[in-house]
Amino acid sequence: SSHVECQGKWLREGSMSPTMRQTHFRIQLLTCLGTCGVAFSAVLGVAPADEARYSGTTFSCFSGDEPALPTQAINDGFCDCADGSDEPGSGACAGQEKTLFYCKNEGSTPRRIYASRVGDGICDCCDGSDEAELAARHPNLGREMQQTRTWMGTSATPFTCSDTCAEQGRLEQKEKARRIEVLKQGIAKQDEGRQKAIARRQEREVEIKQLESELPPLQEAYTQAKVLADVEREAQKAAKEAEEAAKTKADVDQCYVHSPACMWRQTGSCSPEGNREPDKDDNCIKTLPLGSSGFCDCNGDGVKGDTEMGYDCDAPSRNCCEVCAPQKEVVSEEAAEPTSVSDGEEKPQVSEYSKWMDGAEEKLADQSEEKPEENGEKPQVSEYSKWMDGAEEKLAEDQTTDSTAGADDSNAETSKDENAAAPAEDQNTDSTAGADSGNAETSKEETAASPAPDEPKAKTAIEQEAEAKEKVDEVNRKVASIRAKIDAIPDEYLGYAGLDGVEISKKIGEFDYKINFFQDAKQDYTSLGSWGGFDGPGKATFEGGTRCWDGPERELKIVFKCDVEAQILDVIEPSKCVYQATVTAAGACTTEELELQSSSRVIGPKEEL
After folding, report:
1. Which of 391, 372, 364, 264 is nearest to 315 (CA)?
2. From CA 520, how far away is CA 545, in angstroms rounded?
3. 3-state secondary structure of 379
4. What is the rounded CA–CA span in Å between residue 512 and residue 505?
5. Are strands 101-103 and 111-113 parallel, antiparallel or unpaired?
6. What's this model's pTM, rounded to 2 decimal places?
7. Among candidate residues 572, 601, 597, the one with its CA nearest the CA of residue 509
8. What is the rounded CA–CA span in Å between residue 27 and residue 73?
9. Going by C-beta distance under 8 Å and a sequence separation of 6 or more, which residues neighbour residue 344?
10. Are 162 and 599 in contact (CB under 8 A)?
11. In this predicted model, what pLDDT tens digit does every residue of 217-248 receive, in sequence order?
12. DSSP H or E run through 598
């Protein structure tokens, strides 16, 4: 009845002016808050745990900065406290987050909402308590006002928020039961994965110890091989230095043979015609780098001749020995080609010996005439002359022997022809014997011709060192790989161990997203990064992906939500080349959430059921 009476008092304000109505409203509101308290429970918008703070003859702001206020100042529509604590049931102190409106929601879940959502014409509380003040002040206004047609005409239905807590409570209980079951299954799966991960980690630790036990002998072998290889390298270095020194000396000797006075003359102003800088002159052997100017003084007179090359600072590196070397004469093709040989005929090859022998007979005859026996001494005969003495007769004998051999060969052929006329049986016998003999000869020839198998080439000390080092490196790589798998999931995140080796994918928009846990992530064929690690509870990152055009390297941030199976819910790009994926996993299920779901709770302004 008091609630109806208060509504009657507000309805009578329609006959007042706006100014009088505002003043009268404040007075009536304070009066109604005192006399109509039953309508708004104890204090509208106050949680049961805080009701005691609003009892008494005065009220003190929660912040304690303002002086005490009369109780009539509570929910009077004026914000007297900076923290809004004097207006828990109105929207007068909207904009702050310390004092929130409490929805009791009997039969459903209590919740808190921002003061800005109180009295805005939108039913946020299922019991409608957030719009009770608006309904009392303006019963015929609001977004839910309906026009009812009767036989007497059209009338307005008063603005009200229906109490839907009972129905909402049933839905919430159903969802809560489902959520509790998911949490229980997720936690069980998480525990199972944790136990398997611990066992797998122990196996990997054993494998690491086994590999590490193989390292000492391999490292010792590598150390010994390195000592020998160092000796071999020093020998190669010394040989190379000796070779280079010999080559340099040969180049120097050759240079000073054809250009003994050659010098590099340095000039200034980056011009070969610039002023001389004799203190920077150098020998011809040195190859001068880019950036110096001067000329190659081939004759050593200190003056640049017309035929001597000059260089400015932009000229490439130069070596005066090469520049001053005399150019080889090029014989023209016409002069080199003999006219006595027609096209297509092979040119006769004349050996140096034939050239030397040409005219040797006349030369020897002239020498014998010039040096007769004097004083009874016999002329000296060279060994070559002795060897040549009778050479013509020797050649004639060899030709006669060749002729005789030819006759014998002819007789042999005649004998073969006669044998060919023998009976067929003899021919067959001879043929078989000949074939066997021929096969034997052929086998001998093949055996003699076939090369012996190649013996394995002895490895150098440097090659042996490389092999020994590779064995050590291979073991270290295996250890590092196993260690990386262990470190990928720290102890506090072992609940996510069930994701090891799991790949999930989902097409979102025009792209296919793939996440291979603890390895990499991709958008189609574009890398979104390699596993970077966990960033905190329920968060992880893949980093170092393909660089965006005119942007940073791509990366993918993971936000985990509790569920039994792993799947991608959504992927967004909150900033350029930085992606965020919402992923379900059993590792995100916590006992804290299970306890919260199992107990009574109050939903916050930013929470959802």
Report:
1. 264
2. 9
3. coil
4. 7
5. antiparallel
6. 0.52
7. 572
8. 11
9. none
10. no
11. 999 999 999 999 999 999 999 999 999 888 87
12. helix 591-598
